[in-house]
Amino acid sequence: QVQLVESGGGLVQPGGSLILSCAASGFTVEGYAMNWYRQAPGKERELVAAISQSGQASIDFTLKDRFAITRDNDKNAVYLQMSSLKTEDTAVYYCNAGTLFLTRTSGDYWGQGTQVTVSS
After folding, report:
1. What is the pLDDT of residues 44-87, one digit of tens each?
2. Is 96 exposed, middle or buried (0-12, 13-18, 19+ CB in 10 A)?
């Protein structure tokens, strides 16, 4: 059974850092394009970061100086490192696994999401 479980969210002050983890089971992360999306209240879900099957990483250009995505094949997990967090980064962050790099399809797998709140 395919499962994605996110962890690491929480409340952080502006300027702080967080590392989100996505533990996968039922498939191997290196066989899929792994992605992090986020959805803020009242907004569309947006792609934040992606890593392809070959390990190529892509970060939203507005976030590339603060966010990074990595993959650990041994742990079958993907991580999102976030630094210099801003209030506008507040959102539910979702882990996603798909067959196509940078393209969301109806066959993608999704985690349940983890809340990140940036507030003083």
Report:
1. 999 999 999 999 999 999 999 999 999 999 999 999 999 999 99
2. buried
